[in-house]
Amino acid sequence: MKILFNNKKEDLLSRLKKQEPAAQKIFYEQNVKRFLSVSKSYVSDIYQAEDCVIKAFCKIFKSIETFRSEGNLEGWARRIVVNECLNFIKSHKTVFYIDDINPAVLEEFHDEITDFDFNAQELLDQLPDAYRMVFNLYVIEGCSHQEISETLDISLAVSKTQLFRAKEKLRKIYFQQQKNLKNEYSEI
Predict the structure, then answer these.
(1) Which of the 8 DSSP states describes residue 4?
(2) Of 96, 105, 113, 176, whose CB count within 10 A is highest?
(3) In what residue span(s) does the RNA polymerase sigma factor 70 region 4 type domain sit (predicted)?
(4) Would the CA dihedral through 106, 107, 108, 112 be positive or negative?
(5) 159-185 pLDDT tens trace
(6) pTM of the entire predicted model
């Protein structure tokens, strides 16, 4: 059954705040693919990533009244998706952080390791969860190391270490893929 809206002035947000199923369906369809991509960048298993997205949409629709229109609705909802992924990872205790690199070394290599091109999702899927979470929060979400350390309940040094290691691992994976491609083409 298709629902028609009488008042054309009503926007999607006001309809969402009224808990209208048709508005929820529209919002879901507009954002599900993007949010699944976000979730997949944190949770490597597709089924677990889908579960996180479903739970996030439930939270979005349940708490839509708390959105104050101070920013972008999609950005607010994306933050809920990210938080749901982080909560999932924390609850499964599958992430271990290692703090054994001198943070001063990180600053030295920072500029060198930030500017390479890669197919993000394929490479991110190959990172350990701890690396991927810090990388996503820092690079994709734009969080500071202080925010990351508070969000993940880790030290500032561990946040910097994990980012450094993530970038190094991404670089190694990328160059290995390039080397493999070059070898495949030379055999043809």
Answers:
(1) P
(2) 113
(3) 121-170
(4) positive
(5) 899 889 988 888 888 888 778 777 777
(6) 0.62
